[in-house]
Design goal:
Layout lengths: L1 H21 L10 H22 L5 E3 L4 E3 L8 H13 L5
Antiparallel strand pairs: 1-2
Amino acid sequence: MRTRTIISVVALSIVASLAACAGRAPVFARVTNAEWAARVRTEFLHTWRGYERYTWGHDELKPLSKTARDGCGVSLLMTPVDAQDTLILTGPRVR
């Protein structure tokens, strides 16, 4: 039950941020926890696949140029480390 709550809070934060950027007020009452979780999984898998395709072995992806960036000059593999908690919470099967 605690994992569902955490996923819901994360999803709510992501959707609220995206809606604020778009200049629209989000509608929260009509979305179930399962739908929130599915949205978070979908967005996570999208970003993970972008990392795999364009930045594998580096720290972060520069989205406009689709090139890698290493903050310290050498790769510390920070993206996989940062993503680990999301992988644990959402449990997507990354291929």
